[in-house]
Amino acid sequence: MRQKFAINLVFLLTVSLLIKPFWIFGIDRVIQNRFPVGVYGTYFAVFNYSFLLSIILDFGINNFNSRAISRDKNRLGEYLLNLMIIKGVLSILYFALTFLSALATGFDELQIKMLFFLAINQVLLSLILYLRSNIAALQYFKTDSLISTLDRLLAIIFCLGLLYLPAFKDSFNIMWFIYAQTLSLVITAVLAFVVIMGKSTIQMNIWKPKFTRLILLKSAPFAMLALLMGVYYRIDAVMIERMLPNGDNEAGIYAASFRLLDAVNQFGYLFATLLLPMFAGMIRRNEQLRHLVKFSSELLFVIAIITAVDCYFFRNEMMALMYKNSTAYWSQIFGWLMFTFIPMSSIYVFGTLLTANGSLKVLNFIALGGMFLNIGLNLYLIPHYGALGATFATLVTQFLAAGAHIVAANRTFGFVYEGREFLRLLAYALLSCLILVLIKMLPVDWRTSLVLASAACLLLAAVARLVPLSEFMDMVKLRGTS
To answer: Between vectors from CA 373 to CA 252 and to CA 111, what angle results, nearest 5°?
Structure first.
């Protein structure tokens, strides 16, 4: 079992780190450069809008199903029909609420057309995640890993053909980009369903409404948390596009920077998937958590600091390299937005710890506060400063949310830290900035300076014993036994 998991983990990390970055930088970025800034900005705003209520499509069903099938594989045939019926009803509710709110918000004809297919994509993605929960519960780990990246791989192939084949490249438009994603998701969903049908026989006994309500009520706190966090993570682009006269253009500029933040957050997310079962197992066994929390939070802090200061000090060079329309304004947004990875890295640790403990009331309270704070700041800052205002709103919200997570985790578990530990982290951050300032003065190409600066900051972290790699390898091994 441990060997199976280890192989799956390595495979999943490998394909994720190969395919997802290629999608972000080799496809999504290229497509933004292909169109005027406002065209992609409109797509980006509508894409984020389709995410806002997408938790309705799941509502905790995947977690419930994964636990149930893992305990009794024979339930698959009974659960498959019933849960797909529930997901069908939830999909209708998602479509109704999403489009009613979009019409009330004033979406035009093109935006409604985009939203229709992007909403279908959300439904298909939710279906794939549900089908994958069955495959993983049956312990077909390699199959699950393949399906997890199949839609992105297919979308890459389709988009490369549309972008570069002579028959399509001159007439390529933003809707084709959406259609390519839809087709990829359809194929992936069909293949995942075929895999499931080969492992079970559908039973026609329909659950009573009372049992269905019980499932949804138990899942409601998890769904509420995902909804609140999704809103304050995704609402910025929607508000930029809706509130400004040139909102489509500003949303496109914001998207250029958000793409890189989203890319580095993939690492934090993968790190959290390692920590969640470990924290849960240690809490169940009443083991001491402080050492693992300290180690993981400091390691992610180092990664976040190096990423943030590198991006800030080389913001002009990076944006000019990636975007043909880049200006100093683009770079300013990018430089500040990447600092939000620092508080986000803390949330990946302390938020995961609270989730493993089942502290959903606290997490929902923090997420609710973060949502209202983010929306309030955006309402004030976006009209005055455009996309840069949304950047500062995100930065402030994430730092305060991270602080709230840290305080809540410390109170819940009784952690006590010495002041010198915080001073050591602060000193590391300041010294990293100083290193960047000094290395930028060297008469070498900026790419060489970037590599030297990253290496120097990493060496400084090793000297300060903030990155004990042997302990990280122990953590990966421990994950296989949790």
So the answer is: 30
